[in-house]
Amino acid sequence: MAREIFINVTPQEKRVAILENKKLEEFYIERPDSVNLVGNIYKGKVESVLQGIDAAFVDLGLEKNGFLYVSDVVTSASSYEKLLEEPDEEYKAQIEKEKALPSITEVLKKGDEVLVQIVKEPIRSKGARLTTHISIPGRFLVMMPFDPNIGISKRIEDKRERARIRKIIDDLKLPKEIGFIVRTAAQGATQKEFFREVRYLMGLWGNIKYKGKKARAPQLVHEEYDLILRTARDIFRSGTSRLEIDSKVEFKRVLRFLNICAPQMKGSLKLYHEKMPLFEKYDIERQIEKVYNRNVQLKSGGYLVFDETESLVAIDVNSGKSVRGRNLEDTAFRTNLEAASEIARQLRLRDIGGIIIIDFIDMEIHGHRKTVFRALERALEEDKAKTKILNISSIGLVEMTRQRVRPSVAGKHYQKCPYCSGRGAVKSAETISIELMRKLGAVLAESSRVRELFVFLHPEVASYICAPDKIRSMIKPLERNFRKNIRIIEEPSLHMEDIKIEQGRS
User: Fold this and answer.
1) Which of 83, 96, 328, 343 has a CA between 20 and 30 Å from the CA of residue 408?
2) How far apart are alpha carbons 292 and 297 in whole angstroms?
3) 420, 428 in Cβ contact below 8 A?
4) Are residues 29 and 291 in contact, defined by beta-carbon separation less than 8 angstroms?
């Protein structure tokens, strides 16, 4: 597939769009007030140790303390088992041993200084999640200074390629006390490229160690690349036809980075200088707008509905106007197949993480359910975030989790509605009018000297209750029973659910 990367830079934000065959597949955004923290390394100070949750809170010098689980202190980074090739019995025994973890109080105490790395950004009220197992990514390798194991991505499936890379790693004579994981992007990389990267990572780690010794906690020791350089390092690789940037400053910065780390990719780097905005020219802006929609249309006429809640994300698959099948079962099967690949794409685009529940259209045939599940699995293989997926149930539900490193696109760019407080709904005019009757009865019963009441309501509620039938059935009986006047007044500044009552005394 033709893979292209476009980067739009303004003083307010940086945006990265990744297209395959002109279709938006990944989208990232970074703003000055919400820069990426994942990958940053700090010299932190332990503020408190909580045995009940086996975690410590660490002061990083940020607004919120980070939290560090005991497993992220004592379990070696080699527990990234899926990145290692056929672990031997000794390795398996080591993993079993590490499952019996000591108490956090045996490992850390208040006031301790620790070198930690952020692996998960602060989300809502939670602080950043930390680890002491530092990892430093390059284009082809991830260096792990405190783990001596050598691993290789299982996504590199070709046996000859795995053997070739193994030989290169052996020939490099890497330091025995430092570990490396070979990334998927290393397929086809030459020995010279591996050597260049190892030299770069070793130099970077030497600098981090020096700063860590000199720093006074809490202090930032190493800052991860910003969105643009992370894109150049992690995404811009062979198979990408071009990376086009509309900022001369950022173009030069990426060029300098490529000169050091990937000089063979410089020919695919382009500077965009036309008057028409970059994202408008390549029809990216229109595609980005759809990322924020609750509903996603499918080509067949079906559609997906995304609902994000505090605890999970629910995705509903609907047949809509789809009539592609020969019968109801066939229509459901075809729509679900199309939905499976689109759901995987939308999870990447929206950067949705945590618990996800997918409600596929009911299918009676077991083989159909199995085929849809496999299609979803294949589509998720392209996702860089870790996913875990359970088999589709007899009623069409799929439970899965997706690694959540930072807030979703919607979580970053939308605030809780000040009107409905995040409920997504407000009380109806009828419900509010009934509440008003109860409040009026209580006020009138307690205030014998009240001559009349002035009731201020949102215009929509005031209009509802001032209808002739509502005046007769709701307001007039109260006025007769208590011998008081009730005045309904429209107040546009009021919330739909607000009721304001003022008393006029005799």
Assistant:
1) 83
2) 13
3) no
4) no
Residue 484 phi/psi, 5-degree rounding, is: -130, 160
Residue pair 300/322 in contact (Cβ under 8 Å)? The answer is yes
Helix (H) or strand (E) holding 118: strand 113-120
User: Which phi and psi angles does 195 have, rounded to 5°?
Assistant: -60, -45
DSSP calls for 176-226: TTSEEEE-GGGTT--HHHHHHHHHHHHHHHHHHHHHHHHPPSSEEEEPPP-
Quick one: pLDDT at residue 314? 94
Phi, psi torsion values for 162, nearest 5 degrees: -65, -40
DSSP state of 340: H
Give the closest residue to 225 by CA, choosing from 265, 190, 185, 256.
256
Percent of the chain exceeding pLDDT 70 equals 90
Residue in the structure block whose two tokens are 């009552």: 501
For residue 218, cis peptide bond before it (omega within 30 degrees of 0): yes
Does 381 have pLDDT greater than 70? yes
**What's this model's pTM, rounded to 2 decimal places?**
0.77
- List pLDDT tens digits, range 334-356: 999 999 999 999 998 888 888 99
- d(CA 127, CA 121) in angstroms, rounded, equals 7
Distance from the first to the final alpha carbon of the chain: 82
* Half-sphere exposure of residue 254: CA atoms within 13 angstroms, side-chain side: 32
DSSP letter string over 362-380?
P---HHHHHHHHHHHHHHH
- Please choose, from the candidates 94, 75, 181, the residue with its C-alpha nearest in 3D space to the C-alpha of residue 133: 75
Which band of pLDDT confidence, cut at 50, 70 and 90, is reported for residue 96?
A: low
* Nearest residue to 407 (alpha-carbon basis) of 121, 161, 174: 121
DSSP letter string over 423-453? SS----HHHHHHHHHHHHHHHHHH-TTEEEE
Q: Residue 347 is which amino acid? A: L
